[in-house]
Structures are given as C-alpha cells and as structure tokens.
User: What shape does this take?
Amino acid sequence: MDKLVSNFGKKIKQIVDIQMLISVIALVLLILINAYEIFVRNTFDKSIIWIQDISILLMVWMVFLGFSKIVYNKNTIRITVVYDKFPSIIKSFLDCFRFIVIIIFFIILSFASYKLIVSQYGQGTTTASIPLVYYTSAVLVNAITIILIYINEFMKTTILRQGGR
Assistant: This one.
C-alpha cells in the first residue's frame, strides 16, 4: 500500500510540475504581449483591441494552474493557534475532516465548471472570438488536480499512519 501511495504521489507531482510550467509560460506570454501592446500604443498611437481577451485568458490559466503548485507544496495560509493545542488523535480527526470537506468542495466545483463548459460551447469573446470554454477549462483542470492532491494527502495521513502503528 505504501508503494501505491508513493507512486500516486509521484504522478501528482508530475502533473503539478507540468501545470506550473504552463503557468510560467502563460505569465511570460502575458508580459510579452502587454509589452508589445504598450510599445505599439506609444509608438504608433494604435491599440490592439484583442490583447485584453488574450491577457485575461493567460491570467486565468496562470492563476489556476499556479494555485495547484501552491496547494501541492502546502504553501497555503492556515491559522493553527487552536489546532496546535489539540492532542494528536484530535488533530488526525480534524485533518481527515478537512481533507474530506476540501475534496467535496472541489468535486462540486468540478461538476459546476463542467456544466458551465457545456453551456459555453459555441460562445466566444466579443473582440477576439476566443471560445469561452478555454477560460473555464482552467478551473476544471485545477479542481481535478486539487482533488487528486487531497486524495493523496488523505491517503498519506490515514493509510500510512495506520500502517505505522
């Protein structure tokens, strides 16, 4: 069972690393196209209207896929003043409860974003005609990744903890 959890964790790390690479690429592209827009606007007194649609798309992908890396690395903000005072058995229960609540939330978010994607087929942005599903897909990818991350965390804290007893 330890090997299964370990292999699952390695696959999730690979997924998160790929998402982080996509996030960084989106950031670089965002900077480049906005620098280009600023150059064109200041040099030729023209504005490229579709830059805003592309910028928003790149920001959405950058933020949502980058957030997966933050969650994976456990760099989220937690206030543990009360939690730290509990005995380890209660902490274990609270951790399991937290993982379950987070997984349920992201399952609901996955279904909601999938329904939104289905309803957006055929719709695009006004200026660049970018399909709206491209924007919402980042939310779905992120939600599924967060589910996998927390399933892995749940398995590590429950299955491996019980195996160590």
Summary: Residues 124 and 132 are 5 Å apart (CA to CA). Residues 2-44 form the longest helix (43 residues). Residues 2-163 form one domain.
